[in-house]
Amino acid sequence: MDTRAPKPPRVGLFVTCLVDLFRPTVGFASVKLLEEAGCEVDVPMAQTCCGQPAYNSGDRADTIAIAKNTIEAFEEYDYVVAPSGSCAGMLKKHYPGLFAGEGMWEARAKALAEKTYELVSFLVDVMGVSAVKAAHDGTVTYHDSCSGLRELGIAEQPRRLLASVSGLKLVEMHDADVCCGFGGTFCVKYPDISNKIVEEKTANIAASGADTLLAGDLGCLMNMAGKLQRQGSAVKVRHVAEVLAGMDDGPAIGRGKD
Amino acid sequence: MSGRSVILARIRTALKVAPDDAARASAVAGRLAASPLGVIPARGQLPQKERVELFCRMAEKVSATVKRVRKAESVPKAVAAYLRARNLPASVRMGADGRLKAMPWTSVRSLEVKNGPAEPEDMVGVSHAVAGVAETGTIVLHSGADNPTTVNFLPEHHIVVVDAKDITGDLETALSGIRQAFGKGEMPRTLNLITGPSRSGDIEQKLLLGAHGPRALHLIVVDGG
Amino acid sequence: MQITSPAFKENARQALADPQLQKAMLHVRSGFIDKRQHAVDALPEFEALRESARAIKDHTLAHLDIYLEAYEEKVRAAGGHVHWAETAADARRIILDICRAAGARTVTKGKSMITEEIGLNEFLEKEGIRPVETDLGEYIIQLRGEHPSHIIAPAVHLTKDQVEADFRRVHDHLPPARDLSEPESLLGEARRVLRSQYFQADVGITGANFLVAETGSSVIVTNEGNGDLTQILPKVHVVVASIEKIVPTLEDMSQILRVLARSATGQDMSVYTTLSTGPRRPGDPDGPEEYHVVLLDNGRSAMLGTEFQDMLRCIRCGACMNHCPVYHAVGGHAYGWVYPGPMGAVLTPSLMGVDKAGHLPNASTFCGRCEAVCPMKIPLPKMMRHWREREFSRGLNPAVQRYGLGAWAFFARRPRLYRVLTSLAVPALALLGGRRGRFRHLPLARGWTKHRDFPAPERRTFMQQWREREVWKQEARV
């Protein structure tokens, strides 16, 4: 009789380029949450970016090259998990279409898509996590990032886990499910329109009365943090994984040590 | 004919099909002949009594007013009561619809009934619907020798009589009634599906009644025997 | 109309700085969205109906040639005339010929985006025929010499006070002291002024929401009743419709009607759904003596069989723009042609060329709300991305963007090089960010720092730190 525990699932963490470069804390928070949920986590060094900047700029050739690199780097794992609805959505919803009709690569892209998840929904939907062992003293509000919400159906999962954080009070802002105006390269190609949209968002954040803003995508978070700070707001901005992992004692996004 | 042949040829080239593809032609002929039903909301699929009640409720929700009467003979009195309650002149415009004509209009003293298409100065039009649709509170009216369409649009008040037995649960059933009456593929010149009085939200999205058509839609439901 | 889509950025800048417009756009955000949601929530079959509606249009488009022929035959049998127009110019000429034959001096018009597309009003005016828009919103913008800023609410960009000023300017035969302070009084005045126009018109022109192949009927869906007065009072009724408006049967029309009004205005049904089939019948006391349908292609057949075919399912409900954050920010005129918002961002390049309309499919955050609410399940972001691909492959996007993207992609395709570069650049940037942890200005990210601070990176990249952690772990084991 085999008395050993079942082999833990091997998770390849897709760190995402923004987390890698700007907010490693989110990566370490992800590792912690996944390990606590019983996963064996590995971070393949061959990863770079999911390819969205090229994909959304119409550059299909580069997108395909980047996608192939990602597929090769991650296909050995049981699951691919990213702390981003946008990047997970790229792997899950868009990679297969890049290789439509291309036999082997299409099959490999589909296989990768099937085992790819966004972090929080993976914890709840796949690993059956219903509570975390974290504490956060304060009032937070949660922004639903577009890709996670509309491509992957992530809305209830982060709220459920946040509800289990001791001391945390979640207040909903108006239009939490409306775009923050980031949109990848959109925010630099159309800065004035992007600004108008993020101003609506920060007004809703301010009106919620929360002292901390959370979301699941670093692009959106940097956009909203940048606007809040330009406006002189005291609201702190963090990735939801930081709070869920209890790794929210360092400076908030864009806050440094001041 | 050149525009026609060019457009059809372009469509066929784009779809990569031949003009004489028998399988495609029969797919079209089949659908046109069979008129397959799609998704029918459960909302209207009710027994007669509840169906009529739903119709009245839905009509009121879109700002129509509803009066229920037992018999067709009571309609002229109900019309007169509506005019009095709103301080309207005792004069109505209507076509020569047989069901309206059979009603005892002369029993209501001093009510003037003008026949024929509507005139710009008419304040009140009276029509008889061929059907009502419970799921949305819609009435169905069609044009014809005895049913001028102008009566439905020019007067400020439109009073429509509908028999409870003609109220269907869904739009498809009402339209299949038209198909039965006129023949498959045939239609009256004008078929009006009317759901509440005229309205516009064009100024600052504020909903206002009485844009170009009637300001008020009053339904008289004849419950019958 | 003159296309200003190439100047989208400048149009948008002006729109953002226009306080009246910004005030008016608040009504879009508050009104349409809640009403639609309410109507959708009240109908459990809504999702199934979307799927049904999509399937009907897909089937129809796959057999469009045959349905058009079937429809034409029924119109002819009912005594109507069908005209086929390849281009906007063809359609204008056909309509002019009909008006001339009727000796028309005034034509009334129901709300019709297709006549906007072919620039009918300007054309008729030049030919000495006076077009009178009768839909309240269309009437208002006609007074102002503008074009619609929304496909179902043409004057949504205006405030009540602006409308009042226009009415006082144009209706100068009315007493100057009259009260026009409330929307009700403005509506009443428009109603009275337009009443006489219906009776003066020789020709009434409407669009069509559907053309039913089974019966040869044209269908208009309206709330005001102006479309009906337009098509029953003059002696000639002209329907202008594009070829993709065909549906096979009355049942198919019914399916799409159920999602149309709910998606557009949040009504279960619009007030008036009217089916017109041929001219008045012998013995009919009213209705037009002549009935014409102008079937317009104008680039649509070229969309069939391409990645843009799904766009031809569009039923012009406006839900995509009602839910679009970019549309909310800049309004419809910024898009620079007839069709604004997400549907315009796909359709305008198809009809006018991506060289002119290239900004439109780019000016989207891909938030996906348009696709989520589209009753016909049109994958709007996906098609905008297809336009970006076509632009990119033709080298139409700005050089700075191409080079920037190219340089980034070069490294993203080469993980080792990428690691080396980022492990050098990130600590440097972190150092520059200093104690504040953010930048107010960044020379290479002016688009960003014009309006927001740029968060500085944490100390080093995740990958650098992770590798150290792994090495440390291994050493600990040894």
Automatic annotation (TrEMBL), chain A:
<dbReference type="Pfam" id="PF02754">
    <property type="entry name" value="CCG"/>
</dbReference>
<dbReference type="GO" id="GO:0005829">
    <property type="term" value="C:cytosol"/>
</dbReference>
<dbReference type="InterPro" id="IPR004017">
    <property type="entry name" value="Cys_rich_dom"/>
</dbReference>
<feature type="domain" description="Cysteine-rich">
    <location>
        <begin position="140"/>
        <end position="224"/>
    </location>
</feature>
<protein>
    <submittedName>
        <fullName>(Fe-S)-binding protein</fullName>
    </submittedName>
</protein>
<dbReference type="GO" id="GO:0016491">
    <property type="term" value="F:oxidoreductase activity"/>
</dbReference>
<feature type="domain" description="Cysteine-rich">
    <location>
        <begin position="11"/>
        <end position="92"/>
    </location>
</feature>
Automatic annotation (TrEMBL), chain B:
<dbReference type="InterPro" id="IPR003741">
    <property type="entry name" value="LUD_dom"/>
</dbReference>
<feature type="domain" description="LUD">
    <location>
        <begin position="124"/>
        <end position="222"/>
    </location>
</feature>
<dbReference type="InterPro" id="IPR024185">
    <property type="entry name" value="FTHF_cligase-like_sf"/>
</dbReference>
<dbReference type="Pfam" id="PF02589">
    <property type="entry name" value="LUD_dom"/>
</dbReference>
<dbReference type="InterPro" id="IPR037171">
    <property type="entry name" value="NagB/RpiA_transferase-like"/>
</dbReference>
<protein>
    <submittedName>
        <fullName>Lactate utilization protein</fullName>
    </submittedName>
</protein>
UniProtKB/TrEMBL annotation, chain C:
<dbReference type="GO" id="GO:0051539">
    <property type="term" value="F:4 iron, 4 sulfur cluster binding"/>
</dbReference>
<dbReference type="GO" id="GO:0046872">
    <property type="term" value="F:metal ion binding"/>
</dbReference>
<dbReference type="InterPro" id="IPR003741">
    <property type="entry name" value="LUD_dom"/>
</dbReference>
<dbReference type="Pfam" id="PF02589">
    <property type="entry name" value="LUD_dom"/>
</dbReference>
<feature type="domain" description="4Fe-4S ferredoxin-type">
    <location>
        <begin position="305"/>
        <end position="335"/>
    </location>
</feature>
<protein>
    <submittedName>
        <fullName>LutB/LldF family L-lactate oxidation iron-sulfur protein</fullName>
    </submittedName>
</protein>
<dbReference type="Pfam" id="PF11870">
    <property type="entry name" value="LutB_C"/>
</dbReference>
<dbReference type="InterPro" id="IPR037171">
    <property type="entry name" value="NagB/RpiA_transferase-like"/>
</dbReference>
<keyword id="KW-0408">Iron</keyword>
<keyword id="KW-0004">4Fe-4S</keyword>
<dbReference type="Pfam" id="PF13183">
    <property type="entry name" value="Fer4_8"/>
</dbReference>
<keyword id="KW-0411">Iron-sulfur</keyword>
<keyword id="KW-0479">Metal-binding</keyword>
<dbReference type="InterPro" id="IPR004452">
    <property type="entry name" value="LutB/LldF"/>
</dbReference>
<dbReference type="InterPro" id="IPR017900">
    <property type="entry name" value="4Fe4S_Fe_S_CS"/>
</dbReference>
